[in-house]
């Protein structure tokens, strides 16, 4: 007797042996197995069951036994039998299961930073690129391949990064990863022992990822000139991770003298600077600032990603490595997930070589600039920082302003969400307290203008302006 059946796309394990061993009849065992499958969610509502003849043959039982089991479960409300459409699973309530699947309702006005407008993803252009890429792909593209990534994408990235971001990139020194976090944790595996220096303030999730990978994290202070390399010790630090083009979350651009100092430190300490170029393409006051890596490819690891330019769901990022790190990173990649998926890589390669990527970035830059301008106009008179680039701005709060926690609560009551500067400091004890900054750290709101759709953005700005006027008072 077969305990597995597959018809109409359904694969389900039906355990009839346990019932038989306990003296349960075949029909009762079949009823129980189907009932459990519906209750447990293995057979979802609307699933069409096999015809009685087909299931009887699969299980090696009489067709009448299956018919009787179907009739019983239909009478109990688990199944629905309609003439001409077969037998299907009824909509059976499973409160516990549904509750576990629940997700918090998203805010009505979402100004949280870190996500682009995914509704503007270039679906039609991506589909065209995918058809062309798959139509021309060699059979080897669907087999196991180079852990660095598809050669088509690495060649396309080398060309694009060189002309658009000033990166000194060769295809052989590029490793494609499943997002920025994988790139960061691969480096944590291969770089010499020592702590990672991360900007303070900076993204908390990056600190968590490195700690989870077994690395200590130390703060790298950020001021109006960007990350301060003077705070780096000459030894004991494995890497300094920075966002030179548009620091997150303050938005400052790394000063040229700081750039040179970082490179000098890395060479003297025989270590690397990790350049997180998460939104370097989005500059509004002039041409985008070129990558730090272009001035020192021997000691800077450049990391770029499609998460902000296209969408986080693409799950593709890339590292341009100093030559000495290529083999260690390839080995770590091989032992982690062997290689990133190939179909998306082929599509992105075609998207880049056809210049559809450039067109999309230009259109996105124009769209985000309009949103930024609307935000700046609505918040005229407030202290805003990081306005020249990116997809977010920092609104500094005065010392007599309500604490960030209160502003978050008041915003939530209005269906409004944004980020705060306080959550980005390295140490919880150093975060701003009520009214501002008794510990020397300032308070502020991190306002993203990437997430909402164009039609929803003005209402979000209006609600934010009203909140600030009522709570902050200027």
Describe the model:
With about 475 residues, the protein is an alpha/beta fold. The N terminus is likely disordered. The chain is globular and about 85 Å long. The chain is built from 15 helices and 17 strands. An eight-stranded mixed β-sheet has the order 6-13-12-11-10-7-8-9, with helices on both faces. A five-stranded mixed β-sheet has the order 5-16-17-15-14, sandwiched between helices. The protein has a two-stranded antiparallel sheet with strand order 1-2. The relative contact order is 0.12. Helices cover about 40% and strands about 15% of the residues.
Topology (elements, then pairings):
Elements: E1 4-7, E2 10-13, H1 17-21, H2 26-40, H3 52-59, H4 63-76, E3 79-82, E4 86-89, H5 95-101, E5 109-111, H6 123-136, H7 151-165, E6 174-177, H8 180-190, E7 195-200, H9 204-212, E8 217-223, E9 226-227, E10 237-242, H10 256-269, E11 272-276, E12 300-305, E13 317-320, H11 323-336, H12 342-353, H13 356-378, E14 383-385, E15 392-396, H14 404-413, E16 416-420, E17 444-448, H15 457-471
Parallel strand pairs: 5-16, 7-8, 7-10, 10-11, 11-12
Antiparallel strand pairs: 1-2, 3-4, 6-13, 8-9, 12-13, 14-15, 15-17, 16-17
Helix pairs in contact: 2-4, 3-4, 6-12, 7-12, 8-11, 13-15
């Amino acid at each position: 007797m077969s305990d597995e059946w597959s018809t109409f796309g359904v694969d389900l394990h039906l355990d009839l042996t346990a019932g038989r061993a306990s003296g349960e009849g075949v029909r009762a065992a079949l009823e129980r197995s189907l009932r459990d499958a519906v209750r447990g969610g293995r057979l979802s509502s609307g699933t069409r069951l096999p015809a009685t003849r087909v299931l009887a043959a699969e299980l090696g039982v009489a067709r009448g036994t299956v018919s009787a089991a179907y009739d019983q479960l239909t009478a109990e409300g688990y199944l629905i039998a309609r003439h001409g459409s077969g037998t299907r699973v009824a909509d059976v309530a499973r409160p516990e299961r549904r509750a576990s699947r629940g997700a918090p309702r998203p805010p009505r006005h979402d100004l949280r930073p870190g996500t682009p407008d995914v509704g503007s993803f270039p679906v039609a252009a991506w589909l065209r690129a995918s058809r062309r890429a798959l139509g021309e792909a060699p059979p080897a593209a669907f087999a196991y391949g180079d852990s660095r990534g598809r050669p088509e994408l690495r060649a396309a990235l080398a060309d694009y990064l060189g002309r658009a971001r000033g990166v000194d990139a060769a295809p052989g020194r590029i490793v494609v990863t499943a997002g920025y976090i994988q790139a960061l944790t691969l480096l944590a595996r291969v770089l010499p022992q020592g702590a990672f220096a991360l900007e303070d303030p900076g993204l908390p999730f990056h600190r968590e990822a490195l700690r989870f990978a077994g690395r200590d994290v130390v703060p790298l202070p950020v001021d109006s000139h960007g990350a301060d390399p003077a705070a780096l010790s000459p030894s004991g630090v494995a890497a300094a991770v920075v966002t030179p083009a548009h620091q997150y979350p303050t938005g400052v651009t790394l000063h040229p003298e700081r750039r040179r100092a970082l490179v000098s430190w890395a060479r003297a300490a025989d270590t690397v600077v990790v350049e997180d170029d998460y939104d370097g393409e989005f500059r509004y006051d002039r041409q985008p600032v070129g990558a730090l890596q272009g001035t020192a490819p021997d000691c800077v690891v450049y990391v770029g990603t499609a998460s902000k330019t296209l969408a986080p769901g693409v799950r593709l990022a890339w590292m341009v490595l100093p030559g000495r790190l290529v083999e260690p990173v390839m080995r770590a990649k091989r032992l982690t997930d062997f290689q990133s998926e190939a179909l998306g890589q082929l599509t992105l390669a075609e998207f880049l070589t056809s210049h559809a990527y450039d067109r999309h970035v230009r259109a996105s830059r124009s769209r985000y600039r309009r949103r930024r301008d609307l935000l700046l106009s609505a918040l005229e008179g407030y202290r805003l920082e990081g306005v020249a680039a990116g997809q977010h701005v920092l609104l500094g709060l005065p010392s007599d302003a309500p604490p960030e926690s209160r502003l978050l609560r008041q915003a939530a009551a209005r269906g409004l969400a944004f980020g705060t500067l306080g959550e980005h400091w390295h140490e919880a004890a150093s975060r701003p307290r009520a009214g501002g900054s008794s510990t020397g750290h300032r308070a502020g709101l991190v306002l993203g203008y990437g997430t909402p759709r164009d039609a929803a953005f003005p209402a979000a700005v209006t609600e934010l302006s009203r909140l600030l006027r009522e709570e902050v008072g200027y």
